[in-house]
Design goal:
Elements: E1 3-8, H1 17-31, E2 36-39, H2 49-57, E3 60-67, E4 73-80, E5 86-90, H3 92-95, H4 113-124, E6 129-133, H5 144-149, E7 153-155, E8 174-176, E9 188-192, H6 205-209, H7 217-238, H8 250-262, E10 265-267, H9 269-276, H10 279-282, E11 288-296, H11 305-315, E12 320-327, H12 330-336, E13 340-343, H13 351-354, H14 357-377
Parallel strand pairs: 1-2, 1-11, 5-6, 6-9, 9-10, 11-12, 12-13
Antiparallel strand pairs: 3-4, 4-5, 7-8
Helix pairs in contact: 1-14
């Protein structure tokens, strides 16, 4: 084999994409030091998006202070591409659920204001292209906090300016756009969005996601009613009906807010990442692609990283094998078109042991060296 591409998603809580890839590369090199290998860090648009795109674009991290989900100032970061024209933002870094203590989680109060501050900082640095991953949010405010940080004002029926959090959605009667950041009119937003939920309703943001963000049943109902009301005000203001747009309900309606006011493109995270790093060009001429993730199951064949890679590989007739910490629904994975799905686990072990980073690296290296030996023995 002359060229092998290694593009493994992170083993969440254990290894980064780059660490898993390097471990696989080590396995190949242990058998054939002269094999041409290329490790391509990859992610699905959620955790890891920032690291992957900074690496791919030879960019840098920008560190600053911004408001967290409960409006407390904290250090956070985003990325700038190597040419300084594109800002890369992980919403979870500033407005994410892990930033809120369990006992304080309440989507009536949490806000996306801090994410808006990151956008504003990047606009002031001259960025006019944005890639935003919106997974892992602590919020259900339809992006109103983000918009407030960028100069939008949300007014109640009496003309009073409203505060922050999901609680304000039901009270929004008018939207004042006179003070918005002027650069927004010439800025393009691409959003990594891996759910197709509508803005509101039984399958919408509140009913599907708000409970995991701390909402009780009463809050869920109020949030959903607030989103229904807000959708009408948005339609009146922008002329856009975002109600049933796939992904409008992502991240507590953040997808809908970005779509309505910034005309953002909502794309599946893996598709967006693969396009951004020019993956289709990088794999040309490859003999094999090794991909993987922490757990391979039926969701793998529904748009996760390995499946996105498989679709690109099939265009070039390149075989793809999958490495995983655990495997479920093997027949479905085989039916999808993977040439093989392999667990890195050496035998019965505890989850704690399996999640030890050095142990996982050793297992990946061992497995890949064995697979490479077998594959190359058949010419």
């Amino acid at each position: 084999m002359k060229k092998i591409i290694i593009a493994i998603d992170s083993f969440k809580g254990c290894l980064t994409s780059a660490e898993a890839g390097k471990a696989a590369e080590k396995g190949i090199k242990s058998i054939n030091p002269f094999c041409h290998t290329s490790v391509i860090p990859i992610a699905d648009g959620g955790e890891g998006l920032l690291d992957v795109l900074i690496t791919a674009t030879k960019g840098k991290y920008i560190t600053l202070s911004a408001h967290g989900p409960l409006m407390k100032m904290a250090k956070t970061h985003y990325g700038l591409s190597g040419n300084g024209r594109t800002a890369i933002i992980e919403m979870a870094a500033t407005s994410g659920l892990p930033l809120v203590p369990i006992e304080q989680r309440n989507p009536m109060l949490t806000t996306t204001f801090g994410t808006g501050e990151l956008i504003k900082d990047a606009l002031n640095k001259g960025c006019r292209n944005f890639i935003i991953g919106i997974g892992g949010s602590a919020t259900n405010d339809a992006g109103l906090g983000m918009l407030q940080a960028l100069g939008f004002r949300f007014l109640d029926k009496s003309g009073h300016t409203l505060g922050t959090g999901g609680q304000i959605m039901e009270a929004v009667a008018n939207i004042d756009t006179s003070g918005i950041h002027p650069a927004l009119r010439e800025t393009h937003f691409m959003v990594a969005c891996d759910v197709a939920n509508p803005f509101y309703g039984p399958d919408g943001a509140a009913y599907i996601f708000a409970q995991q963000k701390g909402a009780d049943s009463n809050m869920v109902q109020r949030l959903d009613e607030g989103m229904q009301s807000l959708a009408e005000v948005i339609k009146k203001t922008t002329g856009k009906d975002i109600t049933n747009y796939p992904g409008a309900g992502a991240a507590g309606g953040m997808g809908g807010g970005l779509l309505a006011f910034f005309n953002a493109e909502l794309k599946p995270g893996t598709e967006l990442l693969l396009k951004a790093i020019d993956f289709s060009e990088k794999i040309k001429g490859a003999d094999l692609i090794i991909t993987g993730e922490g757990k391979a199951d039926q969701q793998t064949a529904m748009g996760k990283v390995p499946y996105g890679i498989l679709k690109e590989a099939q265009k070039e007739h390149i075989p793809v094998i999958v490495l995983a910490g655990s495997i479920e629904n093997l027949p479905e994975l085989n039916k999808a078109g993977f040439k093989g799905i392999f667990s890195i686990a050496p035998g019965p072990i505890t989850l704690e042991k399996a999640m030890e980073p050095e142990f996982a690296k050793e297992n990946i290296t061992r497995l890949v060296s064995q697979l490479y030996s077998v594959i190359t023995s058949f010419g």
